[in-house]
């Protein structure tokens, strides 16, 4: 029976069709998807913090309403992704514990501080931009619930990216001090946003198997390079510059090449030693504890309803 399951699984992957929750799947496939999807969910949830930090200081009522809507969208993305991950068999509580105890990773980018209003622009434009470049191919991931969640998430991320771009454009066309603030934000978020695509291909232990299983469709470096090619055009419209002395067009491959990234810094950040790791996790634990009464009330209500229907 195991062999029949494996054969069927191989066939579905070979046909580029989809694996669904009730289908037989290799344990390693289940495990790597649980890892990637839960890390992705955690990133959406932790990723609310740098922007939530600016809601009370948004420069106008309109900006505040837009930023609040964006941060709420990220919460929604976290929820679809936790639900998707649960279909692989790990309950949400357990996933949440893995985050709060520091056992599970989340994206390195959210361990950098958001220092100015312009950072809301740089996060929208660069961080959501990188997220889209990475996630559009994930819409075709072989696991059904993941691919389907990605479709809606990508639509919302596209809107987020435009709102970030528009913040930067307005600042860039503002006073010299505003333009400087926009440039400073781009300078600080450029390299960390390129690191969102993961380690270089030569040092990416999961890529081979995830590509064979059609979870990943392009390599970390390929997507990073594609992203640089996108922003290199957009930065011209912004009237700003990318802080990359080695940026150049390679006519032979038709791609933009970027500077070497600081992989020592990257490793330190994902090991828990970035500028804001401790603060982000503490904030998440506090929020979880502050929400205990909501969970208790929901459980009490569910028990009451269950008694009524007995
Ligand atoms: N940060 O072998 P690989 C967002 C880990 S977007 C932290 O290459 P893989 C939207 C990796 O887990 C951000 N850890 O791994 C938003 C692995 O460790 P492990 C979230 C990283 O999985 C915007 C090890 O390094 N997006 O939230 C990072 O094949 C604004 C070796 O790496 C996703 O999660 C990193 N940057 O490729 C929200 C997308 N990179 O688990 C709010 C889905 C790598 O073996 C505001 N994920 N690691 O111990 C993916 O596409 C993949 O997992 C990659 C990594 C490409 C990130």
From TrEMBL:
Keyword Transmembrane: no
Enzyme Commission number(s) of this protein: 1.14.13.149
Any Pfam family: PaaA_PaaC
Molecular function per GO: phenylacetyl-CoA 1,2-epoxidase activity
Keyword Glycoprotein: no
Keyword annotations from UniProtKB, A to Z: Oxidoreductase
InterPro entries: Aromatic_CoA_ox/epox, Ferritin-like, Ferritin-like_SF, PaaA, PaaA_PaaC
SUPFAM superfamilies in the record: Ferritin-like
Listed PANTHER family: 1,2-PHENYLACETYL-COA EPOXIDASE, SUBUNIT A, PHENYLACETIC ACID DEGRADATION PROTEIN PAA
Name the record gives this protein: 1,2-phenylacetyl-CoA epoxidase subunit A
Upper classification of the organism: Bacteria, Bacillati, Actinomycetota, Actinomycetes, Micrococcales
Gene: paaA
């Amino acid at each position: 029976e195991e062999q029949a399951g494996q054969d069927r699984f191989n066939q579905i992957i070979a046909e580029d069709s989809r694996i669904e929750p009730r289908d037989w799947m290799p344990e390693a496939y289940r495990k790597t998807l649980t890892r990637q999807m839960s890390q992705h969910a955690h990133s959406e949830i932790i990723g609310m913090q740098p922007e939530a930090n600016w809601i009370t200081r948004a420069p106008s009522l309109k900006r505040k309403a837009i930023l609040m809507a964006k941060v709420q969208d990220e919460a929604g993305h976290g929820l679809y992704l936790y639900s998707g991950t649960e279909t692989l068999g790990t309950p949400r509580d357990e996933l949440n514990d893995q985050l709060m105890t520091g056992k599970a990773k989340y994206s390195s980018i959210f361990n950098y501080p958001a220092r100015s209003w312009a950072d809301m622009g740089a996060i929208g434009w660069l961080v959501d931009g990188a997220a889209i470049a990475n996630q559009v191919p994930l819409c075709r991931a072989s696991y059904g619930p993941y691919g389907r969640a990605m479709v809606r998430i990508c639509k919302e991320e596209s809107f987020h990216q435009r709102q970030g771009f528009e913040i930067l454009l307005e600042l860039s066309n503002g006073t010299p001090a505003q333009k400087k603030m926009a440039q400073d934000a781009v300078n600080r978020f450029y390299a960390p946003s390129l690191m969102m695509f993961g380690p270089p291909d030569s040092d990416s232990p999961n890529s081979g198997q995830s590509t064979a299983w059609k979870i990943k469709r392009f390599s970390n470096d390929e997507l990073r390079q594609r992203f640089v090619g996108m922003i290199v055009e957009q930065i011209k419209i912004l009237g700003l510059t990318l802080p990359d002395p080695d940026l150049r067009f390679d006519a032979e491959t038709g791609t933009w090449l970027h500077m070497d990234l600081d992989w020592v810094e990257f490793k330190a950040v994902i090991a828990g030693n970035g500028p804001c790791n401790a603060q982000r996790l503490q904030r998440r634990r506090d929020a979880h504890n502050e929400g205990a009464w909501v969970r208790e009330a929901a459980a009490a209500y569910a028990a009451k309803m269950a008694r009524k229907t007995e």
